[in-house]
UniProtKB/TrEMBL annotation:
PANTHER family named among the record's database cross-references: 5,10-METHYLENETETRAHYDROMETHANOPTERIN REDUCTASE, PTHR43244
Originating species: Nocardia colli
Luciferase-like domain mapped to chain residues: 15-283
UniProt keywords, alphabetically: Oxidoreductase
EC number: 1.-.-.-
GO molecular function, one term: oxidoreductase activity, acting on paired donors, with incorporation or reduction of molecular oxygen
Signal peptide: none
Protein name: TIGR03564 family F420-dependent LLM class oxidoreductase
Keyword Signal: no
Family annotation (Gene3D superfamilies): Luciferase-like domain
Length: 312
């Protein structure tokens, strides 16, 4: 069991230098006693490159992406980036992928958002071949991946772990069969156990794979200003209320909107929720949006999570 922090790309984009800010945050996260630091992906900085830079400067941390949308990306190129990051961090990089959202996929890339599960299966099949064998010859319905020369990166050991931000039944089945675990977000502990951990574990077992890693992403902050943080949470999570996959898991969690699943309160409230997630089957708990309140509250949150991590 381990506890980490996820940094919003929007937060880093507001600084003078996103890479310098990420390295500084990485040092603070490590000093607080946390195990990992994860970077989201939008249209600005590249989260794999950022993980590489921070991993070279902060050797205490695992680095990961949470998560890179696969539409308009190719598994050969992602494999090249991920292996380079793994070599640079000496085995401390984890690749997190996502299916993407229709609104961005079609408007930004001009790529139809059709058959996302089939695309995920083909992408993972091709990617896994490169990461495990250093080459690939994959001819699918939706993509082709053929390496005309060796595609392995020297020093990329062990093979890069691949997680998918999967929460729906079909995505979890594909992930359990072809990846190493999942990165669920905005899911309550009970729903995590019943609707994420159980089905992905069953799929992995059927495929003869090891028990999947469950890196649950939890939005939350330690603060006395619960009302102010809740208002900020409502604004920052409203986007997810309109995405079908999130709507489903939010409802299964007994909530009516994403903001209801943001954990806000004192140290005991956050510690209790962390314990509930581990009891539900999480292997890792990673807190995001810890900047919903003040910088002092964020540091208070990181310190608490670091203490819990050291005690885990």
């Amino acid at each position: 069991m381990s506890i980490g922090i996820a940094l919003s790309p929007f937060r880093l984009d507001k600084t003078d230098n996103a890479v310098d800010a990420a390295v500084a945050a990485g040092r603070q996260v490590a000093a607080a006693g946390l195990s990992s630091l994860w970077f989201g992906q939008t249209f600005s900085h590249d989260s794999i490159v950022l993980s590489t830079a921070v991993g070279r400067e902060v050797p205490e941390l695992e680095l990961g992406t949470s998560a890179i949308p696969i539409p308009a990306r190719h598994p050969l190129l992602i494999a090249s980036q991920a292996q380079t990051a793994q070599a640079a961090t000496h085995g401390r990089f984890t690749l997190g992928l996502a299916l993407g959202a229709r609104a961005f996929t079609e408007s930004a890339f001009g790529v139809p958002y059709d058959r996302p599960i089939a695309r995920l299966r083909e992408f993972l099949s091709a990617l896994r071949a490169v990461l495990d064998t250093g080459t690939v010859d994959f001819q699918g319905e939706l993509l082709t991946a053929v390496a005309p020369m060796p595609a392995a990166v020297a020093g990329a050991k062990p093979a890069v772990p691949v997680l998918v931000a999967a929460m729906g039944p079909q995505a979890l089945r594909a992930t359990g069969e072809l990846a190493d675990g999942t990165l669920p977000f905005l899911v309550g502990p009970k729903a995590l156990a019943e609707h994420v951990v159980a089905p992905i574990t069953e799929a992995a077992e059927r495929a003869g794979r090891s028990a999947p890693r469950i890196v649950v992403m939890v939005a939350g902050v330690v603060t006395a200003d619960v009302e102010g943080a809740r208002a900020a949470a409502e604004q920052s999570t409203a986007f997810y209320d309109d995405i079908p996959s999130y709507q489903r898991i939010i409802e299964l969690s007994g909530a009516s909107r994403a903001a209801d699943l943001v954990v806000i309160g004192d140290e005991q409230a956050i510690a209790d929720r962390v314990a509930e997630y581990f009891e539900a089957g999480a292997t890792d708990v990673v807190f995001s949006q810890t900047d919903l309140s003040t910088p002092a509250d964020e540091q208070r949150t990181w310190q608490l999570l670091g203490e819990l991590n050291r005690a885990a």
